[in-house]
Amino acid sequence: MGLRLNVRKCMAMSVNNKSSSDFLYNLGLVNLNYVNVVKDLGISFNNDLNFDHHISNIIKTAYKMLGLIKKNFIYLNVEAFLCLYKSQVRSHLEYGVHVWSPWKVKDVERLEKVQKWATKIVRGCECLKYDERLKFLGLPTLVYRRVRGDMIMVYNILNVYECGVGPGLTLKNETRTRGHSKCLQKGLFKTNWKNMDFVIGL
Fold first, then answer.
1. Is residue 199 one of the residues assigned to a domain?
2. What average pLDDT does this structure show over 110-130?
3. Is residue 98 part of a domain?
4. Regarding predicted confidence, which is higher, 146 or 17?
5. Is the distance from CB of 13 to CB of 45 less than 8 angstroms?
6. What 3-state DSSP class applies to 172?
7. Count of domains observed in the chain
8. Measured at the alpha carbon of residue 96, what is the angle toward residues 92 and 98, in degrees to the nearest 5?
9. How many whole angstroms separate alpha carbon 24 and alpha carbon 93?
């Protein structure tokens, strides 16, 4: 009660498989403008939730940071490179990745290409193959880190956090002596876009 909203900073976005919405939302007497992309807590959401816009932005930011590193550091040893890369480049590529984790092959390759280019900055790695550069620098692929991060997140949801199991994670109801009580049910969590016509107001 009593909360004042800055209408100029408020907008509406219809999350569905349509290009626009037939509904009109307003705050007081001011109609809210519809947008196709909205940024919340550093993550850009499309109205169709494909995260193409977000992935393009973080790749652009990562290349920008790599350009600054290459311009300001003529020679980089392994230790200095790893410190700069992990803090200034890879952090952008992995922030909030559990939300927008790519499923398209082209997006996976675009993200991995950033690290492929970055590993060539270190002197002595220019002529090595990508897997050889990773071994020399002690770095895993970004794909591996995303899978590992997802496994850690699932473990925390089941054992640490008190939020409970989400709609995409279903526990098996089994009483067998083998295994444990945290076994997950196999299957895909499908979304029917035709039944998801809701609006987010910020």
1. no
2. 92
3. yes
4. 146
5. yes
6. coil
7. 1
8. 130
9. 36
The pair phi, psi for residue 30, each rounded to 5°, is -105, 125
What pLDDT is recorded for position 6? 78
Q: Is 144 within the bounds of a domain?
A: yes
Query: How many other C-beta atoms are found inside a 10 Å radius of the C-beta of residue 60?
Result: 11
Per-residue confidence (pLDDT) for residue 195, from 0 to 100: 47
* Residue 184 DSSP code: B
pLDDT digits (tens, 9 = 90+) for 177-199: 566 666 766 665 555 544 444 44
**Residue of 50 and 82 predicted with greater confidence:** 82
Strand-pairing partners, residue 172, are none
Residue 190 lies in a domain: no
Q: How far apart are CA 68 and CA 53, in angstroms?
A: 23
Residue with tokens 């004042």: 4
CA distances from 90 to 95, 139, 157 (A): 9, 11, 24
Angle at 56 between CA 50 and CA 58, to 5 degrees: 110
Q: From CA 143, how far away is CA 177, in angstroms rounded? A: 35
User: Which residue range is the domain that position 95 belongs to?
Assistant: 7-185
